[in-house]
Specification:
five-stranded parallel sheet; about 250 residues; 13 strands; alpha/beta; about 35% helix; about 25% strand
């Protein structure tokens, strides 16, 4: 049986050694880098099955690593587990969720390595299953948002979207036809996705312009949107929700 390849990025080498020593070497082959940028390069050269990532690093923090990996076609699908000394904070968990990372482990908890191993097993069990949310308007227009792959299909053709555009569509799709308040979406976009510490200074007009650009990419006629709708003065939603399925992707 082929070993499962895991890559860890943490600028404290002893942390990497502890994880590698703990994991069963008959199941896992773990490599690591203490340099985030070098780690990204190695991941692109030899795609692992899973990534373990610290947040607090000097050259590039974990959020920056996630964004670079999610922006690359080869690496954006790789499951990531946060393993960090700040993994217990709500801010870390919320921001990680905003970037599509569900599993966050506090590295200083009572049994961090056991929790990490459980999350690894969970991620690998689900690695070939992705939530696909389908939206349809009429007979001619179908939008599919494939969550874990950060992929959006219009009538089965993948749309050329930016990282931020894919994340916002994914967030809207998770409401399955329900709306997200404008201020909530604005904070998500500028603070959690784009990592702008001055996100509060982005006015509603900035979000409106972003949505307008997104409609140009998604809608058959951006002036008459059929998918990305707004509740005036309240927020935005994706119209035409049909169902959510789970498909296997190799």
């Amino acid at each position: 049986m082929d070993l499962i390849k895991i890559f860890m990025i943490d600028d404290i080498e002893i942390n990497c050694h502890e994880v590698r020593t703990f994991l069963d070497d008959e199941l896992y082959l773990m490599e690591y880098s203490t340099d985030p940028l070098e780690g990204i390069r190695q991941i692109k050269e030899d795609i692992p099955d899973l990534i373990i990532l610290d947040i607090s690093m000097d050259k590039l923090d974990g959020y920056g690593v996630i964004k670079k990996l999610k922006q690359n076609e080869k690496t954006r699908h790789i499951p990531i587990i946060i393993f960090s000394i700040i993994g217990h904070t709500d801010a870390t968990k919320l921001r990680s969720l905003g970037l599509g990372i569900e599993h966050v482990v506090h590295s200083q908890s009572e049994t961090p390595l056991q929790v990490l191993e459980a999350y690894i097993e969970n991620c690998l069990a689900k690695r070939n299953q992705r939530a696909v949310r389908v939206f349809r308007v009429g007979k001619e227009h179908t939008l599919k948002v494939i969550e874990d792959a950060d992929c959006v299909l219009y009538n089965e053709y993948e749309l050329a979207l930016s990282f931020a555009q894919r994340r916002v569509l994914t967030k809207l799709s998770k409401k399955e036809g329900g709306y997200i308040q404008s201020d909530t979406l604005r904070k998500y976009l500028y603070h959690e996705v784009l990592n702008d510490i001055d996100w509060k200074f982005h006015e509603k007009n900035n979000l409106f312009r972003f949505i307008h650009g997104l409609r140009k990419r998604v809608e058959p006629d951006p002036k008459k949107p059929i998918f990305i709708k707004n509740v005036r003065g309240v927020g935005y939603y994706l119209d035409g929700y049909i169902n959510t399925t789970y498909e296997k992707h190799i």
